[in-house]
Design a protein that fits this description.
63% of the residues lie in helices and 3% in strands. By secondary structure, the protein is mainly α.
Length: 204
């Protein structure tokens, strides 16, 4: 791996001259940037707190099919349901992390703009929903080359959820290619919509 001392200095300056520390953005832009940052941090913090509580409860239950009582809620929930909930929250955390990374890179490199606020707001929930339903596809056998039994493990569920949530844009693009290859498009039948890949494994 190339050390920081051997890297191109321009990679570290964001295109600025030495000593130029003034912000490129007016105060009104910084207000929106801070609001977006706080929103993503709150989403990440909320998911982390709930996942810690779920982890304590779920990992204390060795059975794979049972009901688990959650403190303060006064109800018992299926352990399987709590695993699915954990996947959704982990994926939402992954989406929030991706949004935060994109936010500080875009601000530092002068690529931030107001019009992407909808994207930054919707990335965490879209990541959570996408990862959860993709997990449903795995568990149902629609994606046969992945082991659905791994979801019984809390750590595996969290790892899957965060990974798919962080790369949810890539997952949705892969599913789009798979759907076009399998079902075709409005203009082309399945056999003509794509010549390759030829299997779900190749696409995903």
């Amino acid at each position: 791996m190339q050390s920081i001392d051997n890297r191109d200095v321009s990679d570290l300056t964001d295109g600025r001259k030495a000593g130029n520390f003034a912000s490129r953005y007016p105060i009104s832009a910084w207000v929106q940037i801070v609001i977006e940052f706080v929103y993503l941090v709150i989403v990440l913090g909320f998911c982390a707190c709930v996942l810690i509580r779920l982890g304590i409860v779920v990992t204390a239950s060795p059975c794979t099919v049972c009901t688990v009582a959650l403190p303060y809620l006064g109800n018992s929930f299926s352990r399987t349901f709590l695993i699915w909930l954990s996947i959704a929250l982990a994926a939402t955390s992954g989406g929030a992390c991706f949004g935060l990374k994109w936010l500080y890179h875009s601000v530092g490199k002068a690529q931030w703009n107001r019009d992407r606020i909808l994207w930054r707001i919707t990335v965490p929930p879209v990541s959570g929903v996408s990862a959860t339903f993709f997990a449903f596809m795995i568990a149902s056998g629609l994606v046969p080359f992945l082991d659905h039994n791994s979801f019984h493990k809390f750590s595996a569920a969290l790892g899957y959820g965060f990974l798919v949530g962080y790369f949810s844009d890539n997952v949705l693009a892969a599913l789009k290619r798979f759907a076009e290859h399998t079902f075709g498009t409005v203009d082309l039948p399945p056999s003509e919509s794509s010549s390759k890949p030829h299997s779900a494994k190749d696409i995903l």
